[in-house]
Amino acid sequence: MLAIRLPKSVEKRLEKLARRTGRTKTYYARQAILEHLADMEDVHLAERALERIRNGEESTIALKDVLKRHVLER
Length: 74
Description:
mainly alpha; elongated
C-alpha cells in the first residue's frame, strides 16, 4: 500500500481525467508510476555502465563496427 500527497492542481487534473475516462485515479497513478519507474531504472543502468566505462572496467564498441557486425553485414 502506498499513500502519496499531491499538489491540489495535480489532484484536480487526475480527478478530471478519471471522470472523463471512467477509470480510477488509482489506475492513472499506477500507470504513471510504472512508466516513470521503467525510465528511472534505465537511467540508473546507463549511469552504472558509464561509471564502469570511465573506470576502465568495461569497454565500448564504435557504432560503425556494431552496424557492420549486426545490420549492414553483406
